[in-house]
């Protein structure tokens, strides 16, 4: 098993989330390089520096939240980089806002480390060469759903 995703940028103001993501990625049967950005205000510079295949972004951050960051990526002509927005909330308005702002996928943080590993393996194994198809699986006729393990 492999993943087309080689480089991931994690944008989250919580360093514990970065540590957890790094540990979870090490459990996968394929290797993914992780860069971590704690300060969402530096997003564009970090994206240009890292050139990630995929961005994981917390929706709740103090300086710029995930929705604002998605808008910034779109305005900077970087909307082609798929973004997985994640949160501990599955509030339907929040999920819809993330997709409407340009998220490729909305991911609810699992409650266990094993759940995180399984979710990351499934998410990273999706066909990221066609991010629009991924979004269509979770946004259909105005109905927005977060990613969930089958």
Task: Describe the protein.
This protein is an alpha/beta fold and 150 residues long. The protein is 39% helix and 19% strand. It is built from six helices and seven strands; from the N terminus they run E-H-E-H-E-H-E-H-E-H-H-E-E. It has a five-stranded parallel β-sheet with strand order 2-1-3-4-5, with helices on both faces. The chain has a two-stranded antiparallel ribbon with strand order 6-7. The radius of gyration is 14 Å and the shape is globular.
Largest sheet: number of strands, sense, barrel closure? 5 strands, parallel
The top-level CATH class is: Alpha Beta
CATH architecture: 3-Layer(aba) Sandwich
Instruction: Show unreliable segments.
Output: none
Outline:
globular
Keywords summarizing the entry:
19% strand; 7 strands; globular; five-stranded parallel sheet; Rossmann fold
Compact overview of the structure:
The chain is an alpha/beta fold and 150 residues long. It has helices at residues 15-26, 43-50, 66-75, 92-100, 113-124, 131-138, and strands at residues 7-11, 33-37, 54-58, 83-87, 105-108, 139-140, 143-144.
How is the secondary structure organized here?
Blueprint: E1 7-11, H1 15-26, E2 33-37, H2 43-50, E3 54-58, H3 66-75, E4 83-87, H4 92-100, E5 105-108, H5 113-124, H6 131-138, E6 139-140, E7 143-144
Parallel strand pairs: 1-2, 1-3, 3-4, 4-5
Antiparallel strand pairs: 6-7
Helix pairs in contact: 1-5
